[in-house]
Amino acid sequence: MLSKRAKYAIKALLYLQKNRDAMPISAKTISQEERIPYKFLENILRELRQNKLISSERGAEGGYKFLKDPELITVADVMRIVDGPIALIPCVSENFYEKCIECTDESTCHIRKLFNELRNEMLPILNENIVGLSQK
Which of 7, 16, 51, 61 has the most other CB atoms within 10 Å of its CB? Predict the structure, then answer.
């Protein structure tokens, strides 16, 4: 299940994308317009800033803007930054692989095959960039 943190991160980036001409945009504005709790949003924006997707400017006219080109930011990138692995079980994760303790043979594990297929079907959709998602 998609966490609220990931959902709010995606919503915040979509808001920035839709309002690119008005950037920088304050966290307060994003919070109000997207109905995201302000303190929760501040933490999410800090994490996106630390991962160099966005930058912030201080002051009365300050706020957030893209540091990285939004055409290069995918939903999968955001999910991994905020929540970690996308795969539902660790033995099929591309970036956070871990062998399952109870598994004796990954090549014959039916659960692994099922969740690997699911991940492979899901990733092309999640690899869509923020710009494309904002146009849907």
Answer: 16
